[in-house]
Amino acid sequence: MVTRLEGEGWTTPAAVHADNWVMPACPVNGPDVAAQQAGVVVGWYSAQSGTPQVQIAHSMDAGDSFAAPIVLDRDATVQGRVAVALDERQAWALWMREDAAGTQSLWLSRRSPDLVTEYERLEVAQPQGRGRGTGFPQMQVLGGQAYIVWTDVVDGAPQLRGVRVVR
Q1: Could you give the residue ranges of the DSSP H alpha helices within 25-159?
Q2: Can you tell me the distance from the alpha carbon of 55 to that of 53, in angstroms, rounded to the nearest whole number?
Q3: Where along the chain do its domains lie?
Q4: What average pLDDT is seen over the chain?
Q5: In what order do the strands lie in the sheet with 32-36?
Q6: pTM (two decimals)
Q7: Residue 50 region, left (φ>0) first, then alpha (ψ -120 to 50), else beta?
Q8: Smallest Cα–Cα separation from 70: which of 120, 23, 114?
Q9: Which class is 5-17+29-131 in CATH?
C-alpha cells in the first residue's frame, strides 16, 4: 500500500499490486521500499496461488503509479526476507531461499531502474542456520556498490557477516 502525509492527514492508501494473497497470521515477511528522486522500487514476498515468490515493482512518478510487478523468484524454497535499494543507475533486490535440507542461500538481483533488464543475479552467501534464525538481511547502496549484511549461525551463536558487491 502507498499512502502519503499531505498537510494534516494521510492520503487514501492505494495498492502497489493486488496479488490478493492473505496472510492468515502475523506476517514477519514485510515489504521493503527504496526511492531515488522520483524513482521508487518496492519488493515483497507473497504466496499467491500457494507458491512462495518474491516480486518487485517500480514507479517513475514518486509512487503515484506502479508498473506491473516482476517475479524475481518463485518456488517452494523461496523464503522472502526481501531488501531493495535504488541508485541513479540500477535497482537492487536481495532475498533468502531455504531448501528442504535446511540449506539457506542469499540472492541478489541487480537490474535497470525500470526493472526490465537484469544485469546480474548472484548467490551472495549460504548462511548457516535455519528459518528466521539467520535474521533479515539488510542492504545499502552507495557509489554503485551494495553493502549487504546478514546473520550467520556459527557453532550455535549468531554472528554478523557482510559483503560489498562492486559493479
Answers
A1: none
A2: 6
A3: 5-17+29-131
A4: 92
A5: 32-36, 39-46, 53-59, 70-74
A6: 0.91
A7: left
A8: 114
A9: mainly beta
